[in-house]
Amino acid sequence: MAVVFLVFSFGGVVIPGLEEFYTKRLKRPTELLNRHMSIGFTIPVVMLCHGPLSDARSVGMIVICFALMGLFNTILAFFLAFPLQCLMVRYDKEFWITSTSDSEKGGGQQGARNARTRGPFHKSSLAGSSCTIPRPIGRCLHIWAMSNPILVICWLLTFTVGVPLRYCTGNDPLLATLLLFSLWLTTIAIQATIKSSSMFPPWIRTLLSGLLNPVLWTALTMISYVFTDASLSSRSLPAMLATLQTNTPLSSIILHAATPYSQPSASLTMAAGDVAITILNAGLVAWGLKLYAHRTHLLSRSGATVCIVSSVLAVANLVGGPVLAARALGVRPRGAAVAFAARSVTIALGNPVMKMLGGDAGLCAAMVVAGGIVYQMGMGLGVGVWLERVGTADAVGVAEGDDGTTRLLSPSRPHFPNDPRIVAPGITVGINAAAMGTAYLYEAESEAAPYAALSMIALGVMTVVFASIPPLTKWIIGIV
């Protein structure tokens, strides 16, 4: 992601038409990846079925520590980023809106209304058409199926190709892959239909769409499939999970084929989990293009706020997480306590930290995914609207500009790139929900998404940097 961002940023200086090429050729594929990349997060949840983490008490303490750290990180990230960003934009003339500006006289009023309506966590409708007038159920189902042709094709292939091949030739990967995509597209379509349906009151639509998290329900259904197939085929659970993921994403196959004198390997076969992880990795790389599209926002004072807050949270998690888990709550074994050092770090950067500290990489990945699911459901239920309103007074405030004139600070001002109401929620989501929360913001076409992506990267990089300091690493291991 960072490499793509840097290449396009420097390339845009040399090649004038690069931004137009991105808009015409790369923007739509990038948005498609952003919408479906979260399918890769279902696999770590399913892989938790390998076995219990520990005894019941340790599991309870892990859950309590996870909740406490999540609450602490959310509060610290937001209330550190918000005032810091307010200081950063204090003398930004574009941020303060004068009472005689054109934006308040005309178009600004409409922009303010849009800002209050949309907010940084606004989610556009992902559904196609819905039945807005009373129609027979069969007609509505027909319209729904016609608006989701890929979903219908996936289910047809599952029952006409996947199931027969599974029980005739023992081909598990094909059935699991078709079933995974069918379930994922089904939950996405149902969630989108509920959001645009006129059959329910608005609060019911918000509640149902928030609870119907695609990652959560796809993972739970795949877990049911694994247990059911293991029982019907008289196979052990580890054997079934081995057919779901072989840890061979597409990048490994490409690198193996491109390596001179590489030995043929029979294990280079992709399963359902590997296909999902490949989509996830592609989506993470494609975020570099999204960062490039918002480069003017990131290479500003907001970027400094992101780096400062991410560095503070990286140190706080690296030191405070294991101490809280081991000393205060008595989490055992030691690897489980150390896993809290990278509780919010994206999986790709969390694994090196676990290797350096000797932590439980599986538990760390599970907590990252769990945090993302909690944040996705919370934002779907409207938590983002509350975050947007924090720090905004009902009355009109007065501020003195650097030119000596008195300016009005309107609570209904439209959002600007450096607006703390956009930057602070984005940083909060990126630090606490990692890639899943950032993916949600991109799906929602939120203005806070670039800041979430940048803070996710900054938190992971700074955690790796601090974990690479030998004295600090020894001290953390010693106190645990």
From TrEMBL:
Transmembrane segments: 32-53, 59-82, 143-162, 174-194, 206-227, 270-292, 304-329, 361-387, 422-442, 449-469
InterPro entries (alphabetical): CidB/LrgB (IPR007300)
Classification via PANTHER family: PLASTIDAL GLYCOLATE_GLYCERATE TRANSLOCATOR 1, CHLOROPLASTIC, PUTATIVE SEROTONIN TRANSPORTER
Pfam families noted in UniProt: LrgB
Membrane topology recorded in Swiss-Prot or TrEMBL: Multi-pass membrane protein
Predominant location: membrane
Signal peptide: 1-16
UniProt keyword terms in alphabetical order: Membrane, Signal, Transmembrane, Transmembrane helix
A cellular component term, taken from the record's GO annotations: membrane
The name this protein goes by in its record: LrgB-like protein
Subcellular location: Membrane
